[in-house]
Amino acid sequence: MATERLTLRRFRASDAPRLAEYRSDPLVARYQSWDAPFPLERAEVAVRNFAAGSPDEAGHFQYAVELTAERVLIGDVYVRLHDNLRQAEIGFTVDTPYQRRGFGVEAVSAVLDRLFRQQGLHRVMGECDARNTASAALLTRLGFQREGRLRQQTFIKGEWTDDLLYGLLAPEWLGGEQKEPQPS
């Protein structure tokens, strides 16, 4: 899948060093489930697991986000497709030097387009740490509606955190047009 500046693709074994590098950045890891540093051995296992998934089947799939012009991995977009194949959860990570440049919006938009237009999903949800104002702003910018706040929902990195819940429905993304799923 390609956008103006990005290529979203399946992870490859050669991505492990870059994945370890950006996941080792304390600023990137701050609101995520992993700790920094993120060892290369762990990245190698993660990349193997990411590559084994399918974006068209229920379960987890992680898109590698590559800056096309430089052919460098700058982040990833996570999708968990529900068993009914009509709902999904989405998450995203962008390496610090590439943040605040529109790459997150561009990557997540491409995935949302695929989910709603090609796969015919009804709903996509996002969840983020309430302190992660950048992620909350990205979801809002893409049209997600804030649906709730789960107080002290997650115990992560030694503290309880609130989680914000966001949802986006197909008609909101498609502008009222409804499309049936297309074969991939």
Sum this structure up briefly.
This protein has 184 residues and is α+β, with helices and mostly antiparallel strands. Helices cover 30% and strands 34% of the residues.
Task: Provide a descriptive summary of the structure in words.
This protein is an alpha+beta fold and 184 residues long. The protein has helices at residues 16-23, 26-29, 40-52, 103-118, 133-141, 170-174, and strands at residues 6-10, 59-67, 72-81, 87-94, 123-129, 145-156, 159-169. A hairpin with a 4-residue loop joins strand 2 (59-67) and strand 3. Helix 1 packs across helix 3 (40-52). The longest helix has 16 residues, at 103-118. It is globular. It starts with 5 loop residues before the first strand and ends in a 10-residue tail after the last helix.
Helix content: 25-40%
Major pleated sheet: 7 strands, mixed
Order of helices and strands: EHHHEEEHEHEEH
**Structure summary, number of beta strands:** 7
Q: Give me the secondary-structure category.
A: alpha+beta
Please tally the helical runs, counting DSSP H or I stretches of 4 or more residues. Answer: 6
Strand content: 25-35%
**Rg (CA only):** 16 Å
- End-to-end distance, in Å? 12 Å
If you average the pLDDT, what whole number results?
Answer: 95
Q: In order across it, which strands form the biggest sheet?
A: 1-2-3-4-5-7-6
Estimate the global geometry from the Cα principal axes: globular
pLDDT < 50 runs, ≥5 residues: 178-184
